Structures are given as C-alpha cells and as structure tokens.
C-alpha cells in the first residue's frame, strides 16, 4: 500500500490533546522518556509541554495515536512513530510541585533519523529544505543540515566569578548530582564553570544563582581540564539569557 500525502487543506494547527510519548537521547549514554499531551498538531509538526529541558535543533522521537488523515506515512499502524526536530523551547511558569515546564514546538522530519544522529545524538540540525510542508516525506539526510553556529562575538564574555549551584537531572527530572561552584567567565548566552562532576558533552544541566535570584538551564558544549588540573565545562544557556 503506497503512502498517501495528507490533504493540503489540513495545514492549520488543530487543538488535539492527544497523548504523546517523547524520547530524547541527550548523549550516547543518557536518555529519557516523557509522556505528555499535544497542545496542537498538523501533519508537519506539533506543540506540547515538557518537564525535561530541551533545546532548538535537537531530535526527538515521538509516538502518537495520530488520526490517519494527519499522517504522511504508516497509515495502517496503530501508533504513529515519527522523528521531530525541535524548533523552539520557551520556559513556562512553574505550577505547584510540577517544577519548571517548557513549551516545545517541533517539525516532523520523517520515519528515520539522519545517519549522523546515531554517532552523536547531541548533534543539532536545521531544516535544509525550502519547503517545511514536504519534510516528513523526504530523506532526513537531505532534509536536515547543520545547525548554524551562533556568533558569540556579539556577546561580551566577562572574566568574573559568580557563585552557582550546578545540578544534573536523571531520567525522571530528579536531581542526580549537585555541586556549588563558580564561573570562570560568563556572558549573556553562556559560561565556563569549574566542576569536579562527571558530566558529558550534550547533557542538559540546571544552574541556580542566589546572587542573581535566577534559575536557568544550559547545554554542555564541551568538557576540558585546564593546565591547573581542574575540570571545566563550557555551557550555552537554552531557555533564557543571563541578566548582565
């Protein structure tokens, strides 16, 4: 049976509160699964809330009991299993004991991930095709290109020590490791922190500063050890800028 393309009239986002299973591999050795509900959906993307942090450009694997008329492939399967590219992540106000939540928007990119994803699941991508409405039916290696590198020159990096509570979260969003540390340098978009924790490139971490009365999340871009033998991690903030 050949796959049918969805009706081109079905382009507006539909408010279908369908359950969805979201699977994310932050690194080759760490992954999490979260069950949530869609806020809206089209054949080409969806919006939903997550308690786990994520970032623009990451790939997620989603399992949805999608109506057949909204599918691009697997019309006879009970569940629609589709790879999705994160297009935006916005912080939502905390609600009671649920903790921070994130409003996430994704574009569906097909039945399989790019080959490079298997080598590095923390790799970020951007849409290379000029037409987002055909993305779910295309070869992901042709559809997805490299995520654009940010121009850090426009953000001044300050060599200053800011007291930080650094935390990693487990697959249930519970604190797994915690350490009080300081920054070696910091800008509005990222920081270099001293740390003795074993944290891999690609992980998401939570940062809390009493001095700035601020909590935000960051992605680990690199892990290095200085000439002094002290470990450092280079972080990029993912949900907001640091108020310098």
Could you characterize what this model shows?
With 244 residues, this protein is mostly beta strands. The protein is 4% helix and 46% strand. It has two helices and 14 strands. Strand 1 (19-27) and strand 2 form a beta hairpin.
Keyphrases for this structure?
244 residues, Thrombin, subunit H, 2 domains, 6-stranded antiparallel β-barrel, globular
Would you tell me the overall average pLDDT?
88
Rounded to an integer in angstroms, the radius of gyration calculated over CA atoms is 19 Å
Structural class label = mainly beta
The string of secondary-structure elements, in order, is EEEEEEHEHEEEEEEE
Spatial sequence of strands, sheet with the most strands: 1-2-3-6-5-4
Helical content (DSSP H or I, runs of 4+): under 10%
Coarse shape? globular
Q: How is the biggest beta sheet arranged?
A: 6 strands, antiparallel, barrel
* CATH fold call of the largest domain: Thrombin, subunit H
How many separate helices?
2
Task: Write a brief caption for the model.
With 244 residues, this protein is mainly beta. The chain contains two helices and 14 strands.
Helix and strand layout, with pairings?
Elements: E1 19-27, E2 30-42, E3 45-50, E4 59-64, E5 80-92, E6 101-110, H1 115-119, E7 125-127, H2 140-143, E8 144-146, E9 163-169, E10 175-186, E11 190-194, E12 204-209, E13 214-225, E14 231-237
Antiparallel strand pairs: 1-2, 1-4, 2-3, 3-6, 4-5, 5-6, 7-8, 9-10, 9-12, 10-11, 11-14, 12-13, 13-14
């Amino acid at each position: 049976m050949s796959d049918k393309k969805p009706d081109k009239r079905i382009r507006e986002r539909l408010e279908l509160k369908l359950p969805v299973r979201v699977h994310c591999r932050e690194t080759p050795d760490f992954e999490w699964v979260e069950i949530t509900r869609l806020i809206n959906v089209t054949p080409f993307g969806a919006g939903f809330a997550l308690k786990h942090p994520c970032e623009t450009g990451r790939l997620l694997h989603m399992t949805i009991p999608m109506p057949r008329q909204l599918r691009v492939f697997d019309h006879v399967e009970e569940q629609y299993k589709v790879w999705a590219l994160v297009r935006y992540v916005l912080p939502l106000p905390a609600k009671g004991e649920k903790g921070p939540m994130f409003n996430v928007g994704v574009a569906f990119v097909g039945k399989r991930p790019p080959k490079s994803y298997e080598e590095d699941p923390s790799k970020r991508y951007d849409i290379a095709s000029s037409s987002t409405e055909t993305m779910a039916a295309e070869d992901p290696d042709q559809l997805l290109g490299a995520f654009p590198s940010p121009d850090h020159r426009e953000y001044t990096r300050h060599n200053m020590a800011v007291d930080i509570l650094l935390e990693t979260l487990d697959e249930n969003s519970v604190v797994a490791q915690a350490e009080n540390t300081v920054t070696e340098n910091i800008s509005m978009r990222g920081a270099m922190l001293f740390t003795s924790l074993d944290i891999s490139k690609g992980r998401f971490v939570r940062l809390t500063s009493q001095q700035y009365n601020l909590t935000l999340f960051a992605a680990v871009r690199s892990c290095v050890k200085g000439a002094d033998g002290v470990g450092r991690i280079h972080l990029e903030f993912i949900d907001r800028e640091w108020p310098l």
